[in-house]
Structure formats: structure tokens, C-alpha cells
């Protein structure tokens, strides 16, 4: 089969022939229908912080149809349509009981979705609702990230909320805030690039960072934000969130910043701010996300700006890296044009 492989920092992904995956015990193989690409893929191939080993197969936001099952598989059968966790824990330890499998010290990785076929774990598989397309199924992973963040912040419909960073994670937060009935939501962006995307997903206030931004946010929301979601993951955005949130407000950081950042703890203390980080999602978020996308797919789908074939994936990946693509979610359809 064909797969997209990481070769080296500074080189585009390579599309190569690799052996078809075989399902081990408790595993299945899916024919990949769509696989998303995200900031984590860029981080792990950029040479900043953690870098994947040469030859690694990318892709962790995938959905597809089961074509083979291994020994001991009970819940899945050939023909089932699934989205699958890219990292699966042992299922027995204290960390696994948190529901966040990545916290398990015995986790196993099931990335490799940027390929014709991918191996998945039955434990990590979410059966998709019959009416949800496989293309929408690939959105379960990124939208589950937003669901967990919004769940942690626990907004009331009357809360004033600011999202810093309108990338796919910020937009998935917007999706869940809308579903929670939160009325006053503003997005703060460094450029206008994603304005149409945010508006298509229901954003009413898309504001640009500037010296006047704080006043504009206050005017748009009717006061300082009760909750700030930090979804930019670049240095300075935590300090900015502390400056913008109201006294005793809460900040949830979802951005994945892998370089040192600075903020003045005393500034957060002086406002009695609650700051917490959110690591991906629980298994339940995954399942709930599939149901929500089934019910509210139009608004979620607006986030997808590019769908390309596996052959075109390396070039699209570089456009994502340089910020010259569509600005929303990039999906790879391995079978497009074949
Ligand atoms: Zn991702
Ligand atoms: Zn475990």
C-alpha cells in the first residue's frame, strides 16, 4: 500500500510503498477514508521540540471501514465504520481510568492514518453513527479536543467567552460553545485569514489583535471575558490571556507550545485567575463527538478547507506548514483519483 512517510526535517513527506498492515490481537485494519493533518504533525516534523524518527508514518485523525480483524476482537467486524484513537492505553491502570489513554505509561501508538490502510486497536475504536459520513468521521479527533476544553471550562450560557487563536482547535471550541448555548463569544486573531471560516462556523465577533483589542473585546462581549480559551500555542498568548480575562476568570490552554514562554505569575495571582491545561480528550469525548457531528455536521464541516489525494499530500502538508493553504482543516483522501 501507499503511505506518507516523514524523512527528515526540511524535506517534504515521501509517498512510498510499504507492507499492508496486519491486525494483531485485539486489533483491526481499516481502509482509510479520510485522515486530517494538524499542528501536531507539523510540530513533530519541524525540528522544534520532539521530532519523529525518520521513516515514521504520520496521520492520527482518521476514519475508515474495517477490512480485517485480529484474534480476540469482539466488538468490531468487517464493514464497520469507525474513527479510532491514535494512542491506546493498557486499559487497566490508574492513568487509563482517567479516560485519557495518552497518560498511560504502557500506551501504544496507532498513528499511520496517512496511508491506504491503517491498523487500529479495538479498544480505541468508536463506531460511527450510520448517518455520519466517513469524511465527517475524520473530524472526531480534532473536535474531541475542543469538547474536552469546553467541558473543563464548564461555561454557562450567559458567560462571556474569548477564544485566542482561530485555528482548527479554536474553531472546534467555538463549535462546542455554540452547542452549549453560550451567546457572547469572540475570537481574537493575528490576521484576517480565517475570518470567513470562523463566520461560517457561527462566529459573530472576529477581532484582530491590536492595542485597541481589549476595548473591542469588552465592547463585543459586554464586559471582560469570564473564560479565555488559549488556542494559539505560541509564546505570549498565556500572558495575553491573563491580561484579558476578568478578575477570578478562568483560562483553559489548549495550544501546543513547545518552546519556552513567559508570563508573570504575579499578574495572574493579582487577578485570582484559574489557569489550567487540557490534554486532548477522554474516550467518552470521542464517542460524544461522533454523535454531535452527526447532529450538527454542517457547522463542523465548514472547517474543512482542503481535501487532497495522498499523492498531493506532501505539497498540501508544506502549504499548511507555511500558512499558505486554506487555513482550516486539511483532509487527505488516500483513494482520491485512483
Ligand atoms: Zn491532531
Ligand atoms: Zn494504562
TrEMBL record:
EC number: 1.1.1.-, 1.1.1.303, 1.1.1.4
InterPro entries linked to this entry: ADH-like_C (IPR013149), ADH-like_N (IPR013154), ADH_Zn_CS (IPR002328), ER (IPR020843), GroES-like_sf (IPR011032), NAD(P)-bd_dom_sf (IPR036291), Zn_alcohol_dh (IPR050129)
Molecular function in Gene Ontology: (R,R)-butanediol dehydrogenase activity; diacetyl reductase ((R)-acetoin forming) (NAD+) activity; zinc ion binding
Residue intervals of the Enoyl reductase (ER) domain: 10-332
Top-level division of the source organism's lineage: Bacteria
The family this protein is said to belong to: Belongs to the zinc-containing alcohol dehydrogenase family.
Record protein name field: (R,R)-butanediol dehydrogenase/meso-butanediol dehydrogenase/diacetyl reductase
Organism: Sphingopyxis panaciterrulae
